[in-house]
Design a protein that fits this description.
alpha+beta; PH-domain like; nine-stranded mixed beta sheet; 8 helices; PH_PLEKHM2; PH_domain-containing_M2; cytoplasm; kinesin binding; NISCH protein
Length: about 350
């Protein structure tokens, strides 16, 4: 251990997305190759001597306790746990994290020693994995609010690969089998209240971890929500969601020394008539079992919406992935007036 193929694969995967800034300590990790990377895992991260590193992935992550702070992380999957090696900036991002993160080592900040927080989720504590729409992200759920993490891969291939690797590793776990189902009596069979809502597709792994995938109703709910935002002027049956993608909105910061830009996470939804940007809650839904009240905000909040017919041109950058797109819309002063002109003025 490890095989040459695995070391080559991990080396290839060890690349920070070019559009995201990471701290010096994570840049050090991203510079490691092959055997050096495996040795770093065993000397600095692994908790058990005989665990094997199986997969590496760079992804933005969100924690249930801090749903507004998206942070870059190096995600390492071993045969014992999932490790999230976090960007240093996360520790200072929110003052309310003192109970969540241990700050004993803050005196190392000014030295040449680079320190990163590492969040560990043991595979034995894993209860379910919720895969987001079109495999753009997935949420890992443990036994408490501290153990819920969403990985915003923004890439169906990365999501699919990680889920495959996770299933393979979970198959190695020796867990006690589930108890035999008890025959239901008449009262328990008909006494349970049916909510009428179709459950999502569940795949229960042999390790008893649930893998939950969205069903068609989620797209239907999303289409209904989008139609509501369009003031009901669109015929709902004809409304098709053509594209759902997690992206970033680029906000140029003026007056700074360099021409910098901040990236705001957004959900882009394209229909046959409109282009929408939503602020989406990727971590709170579906509600975990221990949640006593609904989240403070809705799953989707409209940030911007424009009609395709007002689209003047699309500017495309020539850089490699990720591609930057600029949508230029006609500056119509009175949008409401235009929306209500539903007559065909060029007919008879």
């Amino acid at each position: 251990y490890p095989s040459e193929f695995l070391m080559q694969k991990i080396t290839e995967d060890n690349q920070v997305p070019v559009h995201l800034h990471v701290s010096v300590s994570l840049q050090y990790v991203a510079g490691l190759k092959g055997r050096a990377l495996v040795e770093f895992f065993h000397s600095s991260i692994a908790e058990v001597e005989n665990e094997e590193l199986r997969h590496l992935m760079w992804s933005s992550v969100l924690f249930y306790k801090t749903p507004n702070v998206e942070v870059m992380a190096c995600v390492l999957l071993s045969t014992k746990a999932i490790y999230f090696l976090l960007d240093d900036s996360f520790i200072h991002a929110d003052e309310h994290q003192s109970d969540f993160w241990n700050k004993e080592n803050s005196d190392c900040e000014n030295s040449s020693f680079h320190l990163s927080c590492c969040f560990v989720l043991k595979l034995n504590d894993l209860q379910s994995v919720n895969v987001g729409l079109f495999d753009q992200y997935f949420r890992i759920t443990g036994h408490s609010a501290d153990h819920i993490v969403t990985c915003l891969t923004r890439d169906s291939y990365n999501t699919h690969t990680f889920i495959q690797q996770l299933m393979a590793v979970l198959s190695l776990l020796a867990r006690t089998p589930s108890p035999e189902p008890v025959d239901k009596d008449f009262y328990s069979e008909f006494g349970s209240k049916n909510t009428g809502k179709m459950e999502n597709y569940e795949l229960i792994h042999s390790s008893r971890v649930k893998f939950i995938y969205p069903n068609e109703e989620e797209i239907g709910d999303l289409a209904f929500l989008v139609a509501e935002k369009m003031d009901g002027l669109t015929n709902l049956p004809s409304l098709n969601i053509l594209l759902y993608v997690l992206a970033f909105q680029v906000n140029h910061v003026e007056g700074s020394a360099q021409n910098t830009s901040s990236l705001q996470p957004k959900t882009l939804i394209l229909t046959s008539s409109d282009l929408f940007l939503f602020d989406e809650d990727y971590i709170s839904y579906p509600l975990p079992e221990f949640a006593k009240e609904p989240p403070k905000r809705d799953k989707y909040q409209l940030a911007d919406g424009r009609r395709i017919r007002d689209l003047d041109r699309v500017l495309m950058g020539y850089q490699t992935y990720p591609q930057a797109l600029t949508f230029v819309f006609d500056d119509v002063q009175n949008q409401d007036l235009m929306q209500n002109l539903t007559l065909d003025h060029f007919g008879e």
